[in-house]
Each structure stands twice: as C-alpha cells, then as structure tokens.
Amino acid sequence: DVAMGIEREHSMHDDMAKILITAGQIQERVRALGAQITADYRPLGDLLLVGVLKGCAMFMVDLARAIDMPLAMDFIATSSYGKTTESSGVVRMLKDLDTDIAGRHVVIVEDIIDSGLTLAYLRGHLLRRNPASLRICALLNKPSRRRADIPIDYLGFDIPNEFVVGYGLDFDEKYRNLPYIGVLHERIYHSTA
Ligand code: XMP
Ligand code: MG
C-alpha cells in the first residue's frame, strides 16, 4: 500500500507539533538533580531509587548515572483502572517492589505528576513499610491539574496542561524513545483507532 509506504519512510520527529524541552535542557537539568540528590544522600550513606514503570525508564537511568554514590534501584508498575486519560485515583499494582524498604532511604522516580493521585497512592503504599525516609523526584509537573497534595522534593520542569511524549512518556506505547519532550500533531491522535 502506497500510503503506508510513505507513512513508514518519514521521521518520527515529523509527528511533533512542537518541542517543549530539548534534549540538552533535559540533560542539564538531570545533571543538576543528580548533584542535588548526591549532596543530600551521600551523608546518609544509603539511597534506593524506586522507578515507576514504564515512563520513568529514560529518566531513571540518566538520573542514576548523574548521582555520585553507591545506590540501589528497584521498580514498581501501576495501572489506573479504566481507559480514560483522566486518572481515577484507583490504582492497581502490576509489579510491586522486590526490595524490603524498611529502614531504607527511598526516592520515588516518576516521569510526570498530573492529578497527583497515582503518587498519593504510591506514597501511602510505601510509607506503610516504614522506610527511614521517602522523597519524590519527578521529571515533569502539571501544576494546573493537581487534585492531590503531593510534596515534590526534586523536580525537573513545570509544564503547561498539554499531553506530552518523549523521554519515556508515550502515546499508545510509542514515542518513548524521543530524546526530548514534545507535543504531537493532532493528526497523530486522530489517526489511531
Ligand atoms: P496522575 O494524574 O495520577 O497520573 O498524577 C500520572 C500519570 O499519568 C500519565 N500522564 C501522562 N503520560 N503524557 C504521558 O505520556 C502526559 O502528558 C501525561 N500526563 C499524565 C503518566 O503515566 C503519569 O505517570
Ligand atoms: Mg503512561
């Protein structure tokens, strides 16, 4: 099919309406967050990064490499009930921690905080296991959409209320591999069934 052939030959970058945060800006900010976390946790002698799959993937590995102390990494996966883009606040645990976090210094690593309901749930879930401390590190924050009061201890960027993709964030499981944060053309949203 000719149309499909043309579709597959174009660059994924052509699907973007605009770039909100460049790869360079992300790398610079991640380095700064890594330095800040290093300064805070090196004196404590312990750090466990808990990444929230899958959106955290790129941020987690870059952040870990920007932190200069021996650290441990673990991952959890959650899913909101329902198919809407609006978070319901009801969170299902798809993959829990492998690590016993009692007495550990834990930092949750999230791609984006939107309503805050996912993190509010996760925070309560982890606090019940008595970590020595629990902080939150998020790459992106949409403050205009907040419904739960969540303290963000380490933040990359505030962004406007637009659906973003790239650097771990997806649309229909795609575009996570973009090195920047961008907004898709409307034709992309409307082309999927
Ligand atoms: P809440 O509303 O509970 O949800 O803070 C946060 C989760 O919603 C997803 N999310 C997005 N995913 N682009 C995405 O690819 C976005 O602009 C966006 N806004 C929210 C994301 O999974 C996040 O963990
Ligand atoms: Mg997601």
Mind sketching the topology for me?
Layout: H1 2-9, E1 16-21, H2 23-41, E2 48-53, H3 57-65, E3 72-80, E4 91-95, E5 105-113, H4 117-127, E6 133-141, E7 154-158, E8 181-184, H5 186-191
Parallel strand pairs: 2-3, 2-5, 5-6, 6-7
Antiparallel strand pairs: 1-8, 3-4
Xanthosine-5'-monophosphate is lined by residues 55, 87, 110-118, 163-165, 169-170.
Describe the protein in words.
The chain has a single domain, classed as Rossmann fold, CATH 3.40.50. It is globular. The longest helix is centred in the N-terminal third of the chain and has 19 residues, at 23-41. β5 (105-113), α4 (117-127) and β6 (133-141) form a beta-alpha-beta unit. It has a six-stranded mixed β-sheet with strand order 4-3-2-5-6-7, sandwiched between helices. α2 (23-41) packs across α3. By secondary structure, the protein is an alpha/beta fold. It has helices at residues 2-9, 23-41, 57-65, 117-127, 186-191; strands at residues 16-21, 48-53, 72-80, 91-95, 105-113, 133-141, 154-158, 181-184. It is built from five helices and eight strands. The relative contact order is 0.18. It binds xanthosine-5'-monophosphate and magnesium ion (MG). Magnesium ion (MG) is lined by residues 55, 170.
